[in-house]
């Protein structure tokens, strides 16, 4: 199919809009599944962010004149995929900002990490076992103190408090284990820069493809195998319980590990 040169950028943009995965949408919020490589909000790269793509989608779908309102309430790292929540009204934006800040929005991540069979004990001393201990419900807790290097865009984890560090906690459980990799479910208890990536690496389990945090090789598409899998919250306007799940990435390893869990 031939397109005049001036229409090629427009055609590419329309293709991108139709390729975008909308998971949930109403008058106040919209939730989409971000692809690895997309940025949520504009940055120094100048690449079009997901927020602008969503605006264009809403403008096209509802034939809205002028600018479209869209509020960014949280972000995902560029190589991470999965659910991103946006506000479509100022009322929803204000309330969602408060909900995210107070921990009322529950997010669950899935991560593929190397198959490192770490010895786990009931030792509650977080200075041992790389900062983790076993919880009664099958989850393991990780506690570290993170410092951030702005120039490197990287965080560093310590098993003890150090100057200018922030305490970071998460918990995880094993979903499935293959020969080379294992699939973890991760829940953040604090919100720090690159927290999941940094803490799992510090525990000897770098995320597959995450060269920045010690993975031995990159993924072919430049992604890292970290997915914002599930989000649960009370709708900021209607009060309805919202529970949403992101589709798995195209990489067949995700489906293979999940199939092991279902056997």
What do you see in this structure?
The protein is an alpha+beta fold and 263 residues long. Strands 1, 2, 3, 4, 5, 6, 7, 8, 9, 10, 11 and 12 form a twelve-stranded mixed beta sheet that branches. The longest helix is centred in the first third of the chain and has 13 residues. It is globular, with a radius of gyration of 20 Å. The termini are far apart.
Please describe the structure with a list of short key phrases separated by commas or semicolons:
alpha+beta, globular, disordered N terminus
Estimate what percentage of residues fall within beta strands. Answer: 25-35%
Instruction: Tell me the series of helices and strands, N- to C-terminal.
Output: HEEHEEHEEEEEEHEEH
Overall geometry: globular
By secondary-structure content and strand pairing, the structural class works out as: alpha+beta
List segments where confidence is low: pLDDT < 50 over at least 5 consecutive residues: 1-15, 119-131
- Number of beta-strand segments: 12
Separate helix tally = 5
């Amino acid at each position: 199919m031939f397109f005049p040169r001036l229409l090629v950028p427009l055609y590419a943009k329309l293709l991108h809009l139709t390729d975008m995965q909308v998971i949930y949408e109403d008058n106040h919020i919209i939730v989409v599944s971000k692809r690895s490589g997309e940025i949520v909000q504009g940055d120094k790269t100048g690449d079009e962010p997901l927020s602008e793509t969503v605006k264009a989608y809403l403008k096209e779908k509802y034939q809205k004149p002028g600018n479209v309102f869209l509020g960014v309430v949280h972000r995902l790292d560029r190589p991470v995929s999965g659910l991103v929540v946006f506000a479509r009204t100022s009322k929803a934006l204000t309330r969602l900002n408060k909900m995210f800040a107070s921990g009322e929005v529950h997010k669950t991540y899935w991560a593929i990490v190397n198959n490192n069979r770490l010895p786990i004990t009931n030792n509650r001393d977080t200075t041992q076992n790389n900062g983790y201990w076993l919880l009664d419900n099958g989850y393991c807790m990780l506690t570290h103190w993170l410092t951030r290097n702005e120039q490197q865009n990287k965080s560093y984890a310590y098993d003890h408090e150090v100057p200018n560090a922030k305490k970071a906690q998460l918990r995880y459980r094993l979903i499935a284990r293959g020969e080379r990799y294992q699939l973890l479910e991760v829940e953040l208890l604090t919100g720090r820069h690159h927290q999941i990536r940094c803490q799992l690496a510090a525990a000897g389990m770098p995320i597959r493809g995450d060269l920045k945090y010690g993975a031995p090789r990159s993924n072919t598409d430049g992604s890292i195998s970290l997915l914002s899998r599930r989000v649960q919250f009370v709708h900021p306007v209607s009060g309805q319980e919202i529970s949403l799940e992101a589709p798995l990435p195209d990489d067949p390893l995700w489906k293979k590990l999940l199939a092991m869990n279902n056997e």
